[in-house]
Amino acid sequence: MILPEVKIGLVAVSRDCFPEELAVNRRMAVIQxxxxxxxxxxxxxxxxxxxxxxxxxxxxxxxxLEKAGCNALCVYLGNFGPEISETMLAxxxxxxxxxxxxxxxxxQDGGLVQGRGDAYCGMLNASYNLNLRGVKAxxxxxxxxxxxxxxxxxxxxxxxxxxxxxxxxxxxxxxxPRPNNFLACNAPVWQLYQLGIEIxxxxxxxxxxxxxxxxxxxxxxxxxxxxxxxxxxxxNKPEILNKLAQYEITLLDWxxxxxxDKKYVAIAGKCWPAFQTQFGFVPCYVNSRLTxxxxxxxxxxxxxxxxxxxxGQAVSSDIVTLLDINNTVPKDMFDSKIDGIYSYKDxxxxxxxxxxxxxxxxxGFHCGxxxxxxxxxxxxxxxxxxxxxxxxxxxxxxxxxxxVPGKITxxxxxxxxxxxxxxxxxxxxxxxxxxxxxxxxxxxxxPQMARFYRYYLIQKNFPHHGAVAFGHHGKALFExxxxxxxxxxxxxxxxNMLYADENPFxx
Length: 507
Known about the structure:
The structure is a single chain. The chain has 2 domains: 161 residues, Rossmann fold (3-Layer(aba) Sandwich); 322 residues, no CATH class. Helix 1 packs across helix 5, helix 3 crosses helix 4 and helix 9 packs across helix 11. The chain starts with 7 loop residues before the first strand and ends in a 16-residue tail after the last strand. With 507 residues, the chain is α/β, with parallel strands linked by helices. The strands form 4 sheets. Strands 10-13-18-17-16-19 form a 6-stranded antiparallel barrel, surrounded by 4 helices. It is globular and about 80 Å long. The protein contains 16 helices and 20 strands.
């Protein structure tokens, strides 16, 4: 799976009127704690050149980090810290950065005399100076800690840095305009350029031409065989595998030839209305396979959906999917399969178990774009909705199955019509219930979903597509979105926290 590679340089800083060895020893203790708890496969680099006390030291540290191949930075206040040179270090470093600081170790043996570092105080001045310089840096929830706590802060920074590094080196390739009657996923791309993302917009005719040129490609047989092995007993239409393999090779060759100077690629693809009749299949299964390889593919030319998938992949180090917030769960299904059976711990109310209500659940669906490893009993089928208006033989290529149960994060990064970044995040789960439906689909449960749906998703004009990361990754995603400059990040609020436009008299 293709994931951005991150190497964080740990640089200790020291105020010149504090003992330098205080910062040195504390930095070494953090590295030791990190290796004991998480190992270190080259993702953390201890900058040994100097303790940064001055602007000269700052430049030496930058040069050492560049030589070591670091693309992320952690500034560690071993003591009070030099507010000018430490924030200049962050300003001059090209890549994601974080700040953390050392807590005091002991009151014994003069630990609070010659051994006192005052980094708790120094973090305040560091944050003030970062703001003066306009530098965005990740500062953990509790940024001052002992070596083990600081090691965890470093570890928590990894997925955040991975997403930010990936976004800065990303190209999104799209094919075709959004389908007619589909304005929902049409958003200004101006903000993408501000994030350093490159966009390549192509006609679906360009794609069709490239596909036809691959008709006799020697790799088709091998890729089709790999598809057959992956599908197993779910291969209900083996005669179209060669076409699907030809399409997959076309996309992979396009990515390789068009990524330019970017390292990572996501695709926003066209899948209807003319795709089926011209290509002779639907692309859903191939989209799922590329996503599983680490090249996220969104449906219906959803450019911000593709970006959201890419960020989710980088944060979770796992395959993602893109689904419609699609339909309600019928009352008889809720009553018989969910009510009183499944519950959640309300994080806003201690550890009290709360049963899901009917308004907390919905079905997340798409035609068949979810990777086989994220589906129970995946099967190749035809796209039922499209087959209502088209010959069935041109609608095969979906991968259907219920989505595997477990924790998920439903989220999206989006541009508003006036080109402002906005986002939402909600941790939830896929319930282990038979959906009794079709497509790549699951029964999703998100606490307080009804209010979230009405007062954020609808009120803030979000489209129906949402990215799904497997596992709870809201904490890291929230920090990523903040560092990308998103001013408002919505989430599913608890009962005692009203939304801005929520009627306080409705209860």
